[in-house]
Design brief:
rod-shaped; mainly alpha
Length: about 200
Amino acid sequence: MPPKKKGKGKGKGKGKKGKKGKKEKDPDAAEEKFKRAQHEIQSLKDHLGLRKEIARRAEATASEMRQKLRGVEEDLDDQRYDQKSISSDLTRQYKTMQTELGLRIHTLETEVTRLRQQLANTEAELQETKIEKEKITREKDKTIEELRMKIDTMEISYDGIVHDALDNLLHKMDDAKQKWEKQATQIQLRHKHLLLEFGLNPLDI
């Protein structure tokens, strides 16, 4: 009769063990996902750092272009002022200088146009960089939130595994206790019969 109960308990324990074995694979898979997520976060951080450096350089270039533009405009104003202050008795020299100044002005205006276009392009790149940075930040926050949810899920899974393991252990302990109690009862009955066979009263011992 005890072997039947032991077999029944073993079958039940085997089912739980199989379930436990299936759950034991989850921590490894979860750990792999966690490491992969950490790698993705590090890649995002590196990418964000690179974008920040590009933005900083673009801002520095834009500032330098603004300074050059102001310098060129000041030069242009100075040249025009000098052009108006040439004396009338230096007409020939004035015309020659005027031609040279005209070429200089044309060159400077062309340079101003080029610098303004370059500044506009730099500001556009800076705006794109800011947008990309905001996008990366949103993606990073989303990834972090997903990781937090996965960690919470893993904690719940771990709690379930520990709970099942404890339940299984308690069940085995209960089975062992019942087996020991039956064995002890059988031993006591045998001893009682032996004492009675020898004419001894077990209650007197």
